[in-house]
Write a structure and sequence with these properties.
Layout (H helix, E strand, L loop, with lengths): L9 E10 L5 H14 L4 H19 L7 E9 L2 E9 L11 H10 L1 E6 L4 E9 L8
Antiparallel strand pairs: 1-2, 2-3, 3-5, 4-5
Helix pairs in contact: 1-2, 2-3
């Protein structure tokens, strides 16, 4: 883990790339828990974030290109963990924000956003701040 150039306050970052298949999500859940623990998140905050990352991945896997790669970037900034999960998709559709899944993400992670790149890669970003409580960031 190292400093990200040009991002003030960024302590560390980790990037994980794995097959866009549900069988590999346990790797991301474990990485999420380990990095949140490094920031002294409570056990409840760690579990909330693990579930949120899992849910974000599940949303992306529904439209991921078969044989594609799921990328997850974790940025540790002060007392916050920023997580961005991305995958190339078949139709380049941003997740609907009025769904139960999006509500769950927002409640567990605090701040949630999504974007679609020109190549139809969809990204979901989560921001969880230590001690902010459920649904706060």
């Amino acid at each position: 883990m190292s400093q990200i150039a040009g991002e003030p306050g960024t302590q560390d970052f980790v990037e994980v790339r794995l097959p866009a298949e549900g069988a590999y999500l346990s790797v991301l859940r474990t990485a999420t828990a380990g990095l949140a623990a490094r920031l002294d998140f409570t056990l409840d905050e760690i579990e909330d974030l693990r579930i949120a990352v899992d849910e974000a991945c599940a949303i992306l896997l529904q439209q991921a290109v078969p044989g594609g790669v799921l990328t997850c970037v974790f940025k540790l900034v002060g007392d916050s963990l920023w997580v961005t999960v991305s995958a190339p998709t078949t139709d380049g559709r941003a997740p609907e924000r009025d769904t139960f899944a999006w509500t769950v993400l927002s409640a567990l992670a605090g701040e949630v956003d999504s974007s679609v790149a020109e190549d139809r890669t969809v990204s979901i970003s989560l921001h969880k701040k230590r001690g902010a409580g459920p649904g706060a960031s």
